[in-house]
Amino acid sequence: MKMTGAQAIVKVLQEQGVETVFGYPGGAVIPLYNALYDAPLKNVLTAHEQGAIHAADGYARASGKVGVCIATSGPGATNIVTGLATAYLDSIPVVAISGQVPVANLGRDSFQEIDIVGVTMPITKYNAIVRKSEELVPMLRLAFAIAKNGRPGPVLIDIPSDLQVKELEYPELEKVELPEVLKADEGIIEKAAAALNEAERPVLMVGGGAVTSSVEKELIELAHKADLPVVSTLMGLGVYPGSDERAIGLTGMHGHMDCNLAVANADVLVVAGSRLSDRVTGDRNRYAGTKTIIQMDIDQSEIDKNVGVTLALDGDLKETLAKFLPLVKEGKHPEWWAQIREWDRMEDRSVADGSRLTAPWVMTQLTKTFADRDTIYVTDVGQNQMWAAQYLTIDKPRHHLTSGGCGTMGFGLPGAMGAAFAKPDSQIVHICGDGGFKMTGLEMFTASRENLPLISIVINNSCLGMVRQWQQLFYNERYSNTILTEFDFVGFAKSCGADGRTVTTCEEFTEALKEAQNRTKPFLIEVRIEQSDLVEPMVAAGAVIYDFVKTHI
Amino acid sequence: MFAKVRVTGKNEETFLPRVLRVLAKQGVHIRSLHLDAEADVVKLEVLLVEAAAAQVAKLLAKQMFVSSVETVE
Ligand SMILES: Cc1ncc(C[n+]2csc(CCOP(=O)(O)OP(=O)(O)O)c2C)c(N)n1
Ligand SMILES: [Mg+2]
To answer: Which of A5, A273, A487, B14 is most buried, judged by most C-beta within 10 A?
Structure first.
């Protein structure tokens, strides 16, 4: 069948099951937008290309499907760079289509010509420019296949505008050849099970890889069978139900005391889909100690990368766990649990007791209020993100979305918008700070125009809180450019066509949260809290994982 | 200390920058580099100085269109 390149792009999107795309038009994608004009696809115009790429990412995180983003050449393409990096560091399947100058103008510094393939090479799983019409469809199909195969990641395909206009013969669907995913060595699986069966102080750590591999059932079976305390990295939250009694919570720089101490004192640590990044391990040279670490990961280059492990199980978690589980014996560890409960009591959680309005208290109220609704939390970056990770209870995978690896301020709102398109029947709650909101806040206009009933919780501490926290603790309270002045968040929401309330007490918050529900437009709640509230516990960067910063001296 | 890495892959326009980018990100110094391209296949032999060759090889192996990586210490 003959058609233009642009029509072929739309046809590939349909063939791949894409229902929604996020983007922004411009000179180099006018032909593509022309084909999208009457295509049976939802084409969402964002306020900024960064919003489009984060929305595609949020869509992918919430649904498990590939998110799609479109940008024009030059500044359009460079505006998606942060979003590609965000998706890359969290292994999220996104396909970005950028327009490019016509083939004949390539390499001449033409108007809006940027070598976006060169720019994004280190932050995409794969990228390429299409130089011939006949390459267009196979390359796009390959892009989708690569984005979701094995360890997922973002792929960028750069398409010169003349190739969008030129006619081509639409090729038949062919099987795409992809590298094979390794399978964990059965001998090592046996050794790993034997080690776990003999463990006295075992811990299971779940990471983002467990979400990708959809092993929530297997993890519950494993933890219950072997009586394992379960800690989660930021990326793993929800894949093991937070309300299960064996879930002890977040581990890492802002991990709970019992979680970090359990990891530090474990004799066997099973790591399910985590790269053990510096934010998880603290001092990586003192992380392993004498414990046996069993690392399960689909990406061989993650094994031993940050922490030398004893038993490496490289392969898809689902397959590895299917073989591992039958070899694991029923176990009970009452003494170990008693110790963990004792560590838990060391942590002062009074900040969440409701005696004053704090972010941790807000998180507990959100959890209570939305316990009976399918609720997806999308968080931004900073103290707000850490309070959410510590104090929300997340019971399902893909229900806590956040920029973990890149820590991208501004991810939250567009990410939440993408999640809202992916899961129209779920309640989407966006949580951010007063700084991060301003980075991509104009997407409130997009969300409002699209009638997305998001609830946006802006934790306003009148500062770039997380940076201020470091300045307080490690830079002699020299608050260099971190104290923020007044901003009318509710007025801003209203000017975007949404609504909102400012709250300064717990009662006002409860009222506002009632008002925020069952609407057809976004609703913003500005939660004014103390500037001086800190995220605790905290382990300083590079310190050993149980060396908590003393904040009250 | 030197390590030799042999990379074989598809003769794609970004094959070489992809390989070099991986090496650069790992802070690896290159002593010598030899490339042979034939039709669809490209073979690259790189002599590295003081490299964590095992990790470099794993990172190269996961680049799209790299079909094999061998390290000779
Ligand atoms: C795009 C980007 N720029 C800068 C930073 C560094 N940074 C990390 S947290 C933070 C403060 C965030 O302030 P706010 O959004 O108000 O959240 P809070 O920490 O106060 O909850 C900053 C500036 C970042 N993570 N991302
Ligand atoms: Mg703030």
So the answer is: A273
Contact status, residue A418 vs residue A67, Cβ threshold 8 Å: yes
Type of residue numbered B33: L
* DSSP, res A204: E
> How many A from CA of A463 to the centre of ligand 1?
9
Instruction: Chain B: give the shortest CA distance to residue A297, in Å.
Output: 13
pLDDT of B50 > 80? The answer is: no
Q: Which of A125, A301, A302 to mutate to test the interface with B (most CBs of B within 10 A)?
A: A301
Mean pLDDT of A261-271: 98
Domain boundaries, chain A: 2-169, 186-346, 350-528
Would you say A455 and A531 are in contact if contact means Cβ atoms under 8 Å apart? no
**Which CATH number fits the domain A2-169, given the four candidates 3.40.50.1970, 1.10.260.40, 3.40.50.970, 1.10.4080.10?**
3.40.50.970
**Going from the N-terminus, what domains does chain B have, and what CATH number goes with each?**
2-72 (3.30.70.260)
Chain A environment of B21 (Cβ under 8 Å)? 121-122
CA distance A487 to A203: 45
Calculate the alpha carbon distances from B73 to A486, A509, B1 in Å: 61, 64, 9
Complex ipTM, two decimals? 0.95
pLDDT band at A177 (very low <50, low <70, confident <90, very high): confident
Q: Compute the distance between CA of residue A225 and CA of residue A214 in angstroms, rounded to an integer.
A: 19
Tell me if B64 and A121 make a contact (CB, 8 A cut-off): no
| Residue A385, CA distances (Å) to A159, A388, A544 in order | 37, 5, 22
Give, in order, the Cα–Cα distances in Å from A306 to each of A98, A207, A235, A276.
34, 15, 17, 6
For A492-517, what is the mean pLDDT? 98
pLDDT at A145: 97
Could you say which architecture CATH assigns to the domain A350-528? 3-Layer(aba) Sandwich (3.40)
* CATH of the domain spanning A186-346, picked from 2.60.40.60, 3.40.50.1220, 1.20.58.760, 3.40.50.1580: 3.40.50.1220
For the CA of A466, the nearest atom of ligand 1: 19
The 10s digit of each residue's pLDDT in A86-111 is 999 999 999 999 999 999 999 999 99
